[in-house]
Amino acid sequence: MSLAGRALAVLERNDMGEFVKPSQRLYPWQWNWDSAFVVIGLAHHDPERARLEVRSLLRGQWDNGMIPHMVFHPQEVDYRPGPELWDSKGCEGSPEVPTSGLIAPPVLAIAVRVLHETAPDRAFLEEVVPRLDAWHRWFHRERTDADSGLMVIFHGWESADNAPRFDRALARIDVEGIESIERTDTLQIAAEERPSDLDYRRYVALVRWLRAREYRPEPPSSAPFAYLDLPLNSVLAVAEDDLALLQEETAGDGRRARDAAARLRTALGAMWDEESGAYRERDLHGEEGVTGTVADLFPLYAGVPDDTQARRLVERNLLAPERFGPSATAPLAVTTVSKSSPDFDSRNYWRGPVWINVNWFMIRGLERYGFHAEAEELRRLTLGLVSRSGFSEYYEPTTGEPLGTGEFSWSASLTLDLLQRA
Ligand code: 2M8
User: Fold this and answer.
1) Pocket of ligand 1, candidates 11, 23, 25, 27: which has the most ligand atoms within 8 Å of its Cβ, to mutate?
2) Helix 356-368 with 230-249: angle, nearest 10 deg
3) Are 325 and 319 in contact (CB under 8 A)?
4) Best label site of 33, 257, 280, 405, fewest CB within 10 Å?
């Protein structure tokens, strides 16, 4: 079967009717950015199904505009922690369907733009664009850090779970009185490829603290974990551009979204670190610094660096063999943590392995700056990896061994998009 055929078969198997779950057993609910990635792949093959995916995710939207990172459509599944941890029903403005109270990088408007470009449908746009606008406005209202102008995240689950850049912020979280929860992930996946039990106790402690405030700590910097995350802010900048375009297509006014994108770019630009040739992140209760993780490179995707900075970022970091790029001993890229970092772990989740969504963002960033040969090389490497190792959740960078769960929807779906770019 062709690679596209195999990718579509994964999406079909994971299709629950109204939403595509990220994988068969490990992730049985609807996850926010996973669904957006699914829309990007399906846009090329089954736009009507892609529209249904957007609509079912929007069923989880709160009155205040938030689209949470998990939507618990009714079904009997064995997944912990599930809806009981979040207790969304008791929160003002929560929707009919139970949801989480956290968010994910807002890829949805980016996905709707791809869908619009492959299969325009004006009535659909008129239905969803105001909902996307409410979602983006929510960010600026609820999550802006007054000093930097960047959005704050309250939990690793809002970006890259157990990435080493969150270690210090997480270590501060008090787990007194928080029991170890019965996890379902480590029944399926080797413990050394997943976050630790202590991480999970901290995750739960944070959710309890946030739930006590209906997930709206005021100001955002008062949250125990308050972090200026570069991937989320970069994705939001691009999503605002894409929303502006969609608003203009529907005879709306794209000015708010365009201004927001420009403000985010300026704020991201201020995080440039000339010495490392990458961007700094900031823990609002800790230090500012280059983290040695792929997060430091995300502003490339959003078009933040000038051309000189972009070249430096690509040469010194993204494609540098000793850092994130392919090397003789670790030919698979992009690693999620620099191979020169003491925190690099080739097998553990967001602590080093290669992820297909990260490669997709980096390919788009390279294309944006005219690094066409480099983008093409990374695209080929990524397609070669999924051809050989299947649509896994993540991959070991020295061997390409598939890690985490298999038959992972976003790896399949983004493959479909990468195949379109030949
Ligand atoms: C992972 O997150 C879940 C919790 O939400 C987990 O660790 O079990 C992350 O990779 C997240 O980014 C992703 O959306 C989710 C489903 O694929 O899994």
Assistant:
1) 27
2) 60
3) yes
4) 280
